Structure formats: C-alpha cells, structure tokens
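Example record used in the benchmark description.
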Amino acid sequence: SGDTLMVQVQSKKPAPKSETVPAEPLAFDISAGPMSADQVVKLLQDAGSSHSWQTRVEGFAALQKYIRSGNKRRVADELAGSMDQLSALFFDSLRHDHYKVSLAALEALQVLMPMCYRPLEQHVEKFFPILFSRVIHRMEVVRSLASQILAFSGEKYGADTLLPCLTRSLNSQKRTEGVQAVMEYSIRYLGDAKPPTVAGPLRLWVEGIGPMCYDKRGAELRNTAAAALACVYEFVDAPTVLAFIMSTSPDKQIALRKA
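Model output (structure tokens):
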C-alpha cells in the first residue's frame, strides 16, 4: 500500500540485495546503440552462461529490443541463421528455476514467434512440453504468455509438426491438469490443421490418448480423452482410430466404444 511504501522510503531501508544488486556485472548495455543479430545472440549466450538471473533477463530484453528495432523481414532473415543457438537458449531459460528468467524467455518468444515461426518450426517440439507446464502455472501472466504462444503455433503449423509436439507433451506432463491441457489443445487445433502426410506420428498420438478413455484418474480426464479421440476420428483419419480400437482387448474395445 501507499502508507507502507512511504514508511520504507522514510526509513531508507535497503531492499533485499538479490532484487537490486546483480550477482555479477552486466555484460552489456541494452540502452546502447543498435546491435546486429550476431551481437544479440552472443550477448544471450554470455547471459546464458551467467550465474546471475538479472543478466539472463537483460539478455532477453536485448533480444526484444533488437526484434522491435528495424524492418521485420530483415530482422527475421538475420535471426533465422542463429535459430539453433537461440532455441537452445530458450529451451534452457524456459525451464529456469527463477520465474523472472522463464518469464523473460516467454515474453521474448512471444515477440519472436510471429516473425520467425518457420525457422522455429523444427525446434517447437522441445518447447511444447514446457509451454504446457506453464499453462497450468500459478501466475496468470505466465499462463497467458504460454497460452498465446501455443495458440499461435496451433494456427500456423500443420499436423505433421503438431502431432510429435502433442505426443511428447502428453508423455512429459506430471500433473493431470497438464495432460488434460494437451488433449484440450488437440481438440481445438488438430482438426483444423493441415492433415498429416505420414501415418506414424498420428498413430503414436492415438495410442497415447486412447487408453486415457478408461483412465482411473477421473471422469473429466476420460471425457477429454474421448473427445480428443473423436476429433481424430471425425476430422483427421478415422481408420487410424479404428485400427487402434481393434488392436485392444475386447473389454477395452467396449470401454472405448462407450467413451
């Protein structure tokens, strides 16, 4: 409150050191002049090897400043050549223990995705499980950013890209809420996506969600799994679903048909 803030100012008590003083000097100044893509990536790599969470946050601030600094096509072209390095940095930072680092990475990825979604396409499979774990995060701002990135991906990528992402995400979620979020996402986006061109990823996805139709963790999970399976049957490829059902035991077939 305002009264509390006034008391703190009048008493001149210093804030906790970890929130005001970087653990080590910042390696760069984002208020300086324009930087090249190579410079930004180098700064992020230096920040990534730092033990200071503040330095990592500043690194992603520098990336956002660069993205917004010039022509979108030029920026996208320049960053495309460094996508392997950037993806590794995002992967590491999205999982970081300090929420300000993971939040800074989410903010930067949300800005980067619209202009670089094609160069990022081969890397999103490793991002998706982390993003789904953030969708059920306790902080609303984290949930919102993760949801926005996932929604954009669902609108832009075809089933060949989305299916491996979904299967990997489903297998990696430790909480039932995370598993349910993955299946709900598939219901929203998989049916509208460009159809798959290979059978393997779709078969793996169906084999992942099928058994959840008779899962014992709750009716809500079973109902969501049934809806996800029905989505594949109706909008993607019915024979794949039928082949899975026929491969199960008679009692499981009955449960699946009831679902």
